[in-house]
Write a structure and sequence with these properties.
DUF3886; single chain; mainly alpha
Length: about 90
C-alpha cells in the first residue's frame, strides 16, 4: 500500500486570541475626546436633573402656600375636636 501525502494547510499566525476592540483601534486623542464629551454630557444631565428637582420643589412650595391661604382647604383639613382648645 502506498502512503498518501497529505498537504497540510499552513497554520495561520496567531496575533491574539481576543478580537480587536474599538478601543484598540482608536487613537488616544480620539479616546480622550470621547471621554471628555461623555463627562460633559453627564455633567449636563446632572445639571438638568437638579434644575427639574428645584422646579418641582418650588411648585410644591407654591401649592402649599396657596392651600394655606385657602379657607375651605384649612377648614376641611383642620381637627374638628374643639374640646381640646377649651
Amino acid at each position: 500500500m502506498a502512503k498518501k501525502n497529505r498537504n497540510q494547510a499552513p497554520s495561520k499566525p496567531q496575533v491574539s486570541d481576543k478580537p480587536a476592540t474599538l478601543k484598540d483601534l482608536l487613537s488616544s486623542e480620539v479616546l480622550d475626546k470621547l471621554k471628555q464629551q461623555s463627562n460633559e454630557l453627564k455633567a449636563e444631565q446632572q445639571k438638568q436633573k437638579e434644575e427639574q428637582e428645584r422646579q418641582a420643589a418650588e411648585a410644591r412650595k407654591a401649592e402649599q402656600k396657596r392651600l394655606d391661604n385657602d379657607f375651605e382647604h384649612l377648614l376641611e383639613n383642620s381637627s374638628m375636636d374643639w374640646r381640646k382648645y377649651k
